[in-house]
């Protein structure tokens, strides 16, 4: 699942590529992937044709002002009083091609055996065409992602935008803020605290494992057992690891791709994530994994206490 560094990579690239562009055409190939208004989407989504027609009608002619994000939600802001909120969830992807690039073929599944495909593929659910002939494709193999169009007046009422904890890369995320979060969950394993979106925004499985490794604490350690030095090590590791992920343009260990269809390179720098059974890059000890409910966490039993 794309985490903060992957979403930030998409946002930075789309903001550069889309700002000032005007939409001339919208094609919705999977109706349940789009939504209107601030309401939360039910787990079982139904396609509503009249909503799709309205979605297309509202977006045609809109000019993009900026692309930003809150936590893992991408916010495409238009000059008109509208914003398009996009959650990539597990496997959502945005790929942007200029008119001259439309014949390009990309590997949208991250397997060495995955075929090179031209867009749209059967996983392309929404296509935006701009006045200059460029196209933006939204692909999603597992179809958990969504594109939700809201008016600026509705924006403060979008629940998923209110439910997040602080942005870990914001200046306001101080050691005091982090200490207060830890105090609220003394019995929680540190891994679980790091991935809880209501406590800190944007960290998931990849980066929580890498943060724990850098801080030299095991993911299962309960918050109250961390000494001051360890708490500070976790706090310092959060921006360090997230910035490293952004600099590498994200990790394509999952099906994440950049907006030109290429892969992020953070995967090369993982110390523990998805490396169970391989030797630790620092001490050579075999990396171990353990289950946390539905999640698997990896750690070095020697480097991490
Ligand atoms: Zn080690």
Automatic annotation (TrEMBL):
<dbReference type="GO" id="GO:0006284">
    <property type="term" value="P:base-excision repair"/>
</dbReference>
<dbReference type="Pfam" id="PF01149">
    <property type="entry name" value="Fapy_DNA_glyco"/>
</dbReference>
<dbReference type="InterPro" id="IPR012319">
    <property type="entry name" value="FPG_cat"/>
</dbReference>
<dbReference type="Pfam" id="PF06827">
    <property type="entry name" value="zf-FPG_IleRS"/>
</dbReference>
<dbReference type="GO" id="GO:0003684">
    <property type="term" value="F:damaged DNA binding"/>
</dbReference>
<protein>
    <submittedName>
        <fullName>DNA-formamidopyrimidine glycosylase</fullName>
    </submittedName>
</protein>
<keyword id="KW-0456">Lyase</keyword>
<keyword id="KW-0862">Zinc</keyword>
<feature type="domain" description="Formamidopyrimidine-DNA glycosylase catalytic">
    <location>
        <begin position="2"/>
        <end position="145"/>
    </location>
</feature>
<keyword id="KW-0326">Glycosidase</keyword>
<dbReference type="InterPro" id="IPR015886">
    <property type="entry name" value="H2TH_FPG"/>
</dbReference>
<dbReference type="GO" id="GO:0140078">
    <property type="term" value="F:class I DNA-(apurinic or apyrimidinic site) endonuclease activity"/>
</dbReference>
<dbReference type="InterPro" id="IPR010663">
    <property type="entry name" value="Znf_FPG/IleRS"/>
</dbReference>
<comment type="similarity">
    <text>Belongs to the FPG family.</text>
</comment>
<dbReference type="GO" id="GO:0008270">
    <property type="term" value="F:zinc ion binding"/>
</dbReference>
<keyword id="KW-0378">Hydrolase</keyword>
<feature type="domain" description="FPG-type">
    <location>
        <begin position="271"/>
        <end position="305"/>
    </location>
</feature>
<keyword id="KW-0227">DNA damage</keyword>
<dbReference type="InterPro" id="IPR010979">
    <property type="entry name" value="Ribosomal_uS13-like_H2TH"/>
</dbReference>
<keyword id="KW-0234">DNA repair</keyword>
<keyword id="KW-0863">Zinc-finger</keyword>
<dbReference type="InterPro" id="IPR015887">
    <property type="entry name" value="DNA_glyclase_Znf_dom_DNA_BS"/>
</dbReference>
<keyword id="KW-0238">DNA-binding</keyword>
<dbReference type="InterPro" id="IPR020629">
    <property type="entry name" value="FPG_Glyclase"/>
</dbReference>
<comment type="subunit">
    <text>Monomer.</text>
</comment>
<dbReference type="InterPro" id="IPR035937">
    <property type="entry name" value="FPG_N"/>
</dbReference>
<dbReference type="GO" id="GO:0034039">
    <property type="term" value="F:8-oxo-7,8-dihydroguanine DNA N-glycosylase activity"/>
</dbReference>
<dbReference type="Pfam" id="PF06831">
    <property type="entry name" value="H2TH"/>
</dbReference>
<keyword id="KW-0511">Multifunctional enzyme</keyword>
<dbReference type="InterPro" id="IPR000214">
    <property type="entry name" value="Znf_DNA_glyclase/AP_lyase"/>
</dbReference>
<keyword id="KW-0479">Metal-binding</keyword>
């Amino acid at each position: 699942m794309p985490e903060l560094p992957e979403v930030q990579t998409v946002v930075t690239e789309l903001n550069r590529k889309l700002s000032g562009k005007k939409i001339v055409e919208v094609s919705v190939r999977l109706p349940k992937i789009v939504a209107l208004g601030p309401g939360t989407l039910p787990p079982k989504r139904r396609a509503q044709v009249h909503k799709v027609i309205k979605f297309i009608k509202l977006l045609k002619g809109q000019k993009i002002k900026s692309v930003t994000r809150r936590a893992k939600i991408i916010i495409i802001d238009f000059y008109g009083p509208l914003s398009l909120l996009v959650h990539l969830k597990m496997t959502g992807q945005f790929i942007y091609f200029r008119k001259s690039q439309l014949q390009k073929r990309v590997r949208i599944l991250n397997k060495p055996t995955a075929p090179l495909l031209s867009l749209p593929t059967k996983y392309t659910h929404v296509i935006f065409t701009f006045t200059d002939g460029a196209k933006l494709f939204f692909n999603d193999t597992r179809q958990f992602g969504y594109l939700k169009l809201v008016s600026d007046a509705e924006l403060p009422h979008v629940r998923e935008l209110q439910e997040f904890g602080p942005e870990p890369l914001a200046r306001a995320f101080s050691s005091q803020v982090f200490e207060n979060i830890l105090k609220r969950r003394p019995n929680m394993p540190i891994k679980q605290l790091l991935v809880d979106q209501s406590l800190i925004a944007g960290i998931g499985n990849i980066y929580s494992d890498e943060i724990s490794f850098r801080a030299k604490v095991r993911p299962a350690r309960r918050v109250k057992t961390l000494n001051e030095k360890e708490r500070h090590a976790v706090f310092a590791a959060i921006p360090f690891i997230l910035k490293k992920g952004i600099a590498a343009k994200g990790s394509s260990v999952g099906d994440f791709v950049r907006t030109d269809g290429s892969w992020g390179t953070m995967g090369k720098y993982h110390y523990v994530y998805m490396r169970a059974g391989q030797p630790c890059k620092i001490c050579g000890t075999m990396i171990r994994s353990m289950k946390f409910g539905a999640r698997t966490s990896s750690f070095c039993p020697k480097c991490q206490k």
